[in-house]
Design brief:
mainly alpha; 92 residues
Length: 92
């Protein structure tokens, strides 16, 4: 289970609504991502998991994510909101 602070939880909620940028929730996303991979119950697409490792855990840039996936990084800006919601629902 992720060890999210009250502030991280609040920021993640706002991020999922589109009110904050990814950079505002890096700490919370790391906690959710660690919890997901440690659970052993993988349900996300392999490409999404690769993006989580590269962006969230390794801190790679958005242009690097574009090269990794072959998709415009603007697509991943939007998808990360959905991914955060999926991880939050799974972990809760």
């Amino acid at each position: 289970k992720p060890r999210l602070t009250r502030v991280q939880k609040e920021k993640l909620k706002r991020y999922m609504k589109g009110d904050l940028t990814y950079e505002c929730v890096v700490g919370g996303m790391k906690e959710l991502t660690f919890a997901y991979f440690l659970s052993g119950d993988y349900f996300l697409e392999e490409k999404v998991e690769k993006v989580l490792v590269a962006k969230v855990l390794q801190g790679r840039s958005w242009p690097e994510i574009e090269k990794l996936t072959g998709e415009r990084f603007s697509v991943w800006f939007e998808r990360m909101h959905e991914i955060a919601s999926q991880l939050q629902a799974f972990i809760s």
